[in-house]
Specification:
Blueprint: E1 2-5, E2 8-11, H1 25-39, E3 47-53, E4 56-64, E5 69-71, H2 76-87, H3 99-120, H4 123-153, E6 175-179, E7 182-188, H5 190-217, H6 222-237, E8 268-271, E9 277-280, H7 283-290, H8 294-297, E10 300-304, E11 312-314, E12 319-322, E13 334-337, H9 340-350, E14 353-355, H10 357-368
Antiparallel strand pairs: 1-2, 3-4, 3-7, 4-5, 6-7, 8-9, 8-10, 10-11, 12-13, 12-14
Amino acid sequence: MASMVGGAIRSRPTLEPTGDSIVSRTARWLIVFASLLLATGFVLPLWHVGLIAPQYPEGLGMLIRVNTVVGVKEQDLNSINGLNHYIGMKKIEPDTIPELKLMPIILGVLVMTGLGVAALGNRWVLVGWATALGGLQLAGLVDFWKWEYDYGHDLDMVHAIIKIPGMTYQPPVLGSRQLLNFTATSWPASGGWLWVLAAVSAAGALYLTFRGRAARTRSMAPHPLATAALFAMLALSACAPVGPAPIALGTDACDQCRMTISDARFGGEAITAKGRILRFDSVECLAAWAATGEQGKSAHLYVIDLQHPGRFVRADSAGFLRGAMLGSPMGGAVLGFISLAKAEEQRTMLGGSVVGWAALVDAKRIARGPG
């Protein structure tokens, strides 16, 4: 708009975005879509943590919502707290978790500001909102990991009924993990997957906005594009499994001796160059496989830490007791630990000699003989 002041035409200031700051109509609708997806967190569960064991074939589970934690079935949370009591873990009490009081407020602010960003249509406001969205989602995963770490490590060993020295019970943030005879799983629930889609939608809005600016100005604008790519990777990378996978006790068979794997304290895995996962019931079997030729040299090798059943460590950095008093599945009495130092600490109690991974493989290669 313009007005006549002293015979001159002067433009009135406007709040509408102009020129390179404009966000396209499609990008605005993507922001609206992302905001509505985030709002589903008020009614849908965000995360699912499950437990499966022979004594609980139907499984136990809990759902994390934006303001509380509940059981998948009515009594599941009580059952999980009962099991936690046996091993010294704290009771899960939603009313004592401060994040559950803050999350509804943060979510409400994100939804309302997202709709405001779509209405305003300024690209730098969009960058700020998308950055806050990605940062808060990442911070939420880190906080969830810290919460699980506290529950799995801060144990009341005075009142615990089952006591295993050095054992911890932290569930995974994503994926599955063997904890004694339980298989613990952790994945986004329906609301969590919709939040992933919201992050992808926000990344799409960023991409469209800065792609359009690049077309108008014939410039690359590298930093905003890198930001958009980062959000897309953060949203999608959670779905890609990395490293060794949990062993299904009583179901998986050893790829070397073909025996069923039944003891969570022993064993290992090899991930071949093509991504295939091979499972072994003992350190001896993994070493025998690795000694067979070039196939073993190109694989990522992992062994189970005896002090943390079900937890994998890289074989080349682990320490081992050979000839220990505690027998292993194949009778070789080879025990794996997270490091040579840990193996040395346990030697006085378990006996045997401390060796590294290379020595175990060399011994198997010598035993096989030439060819």
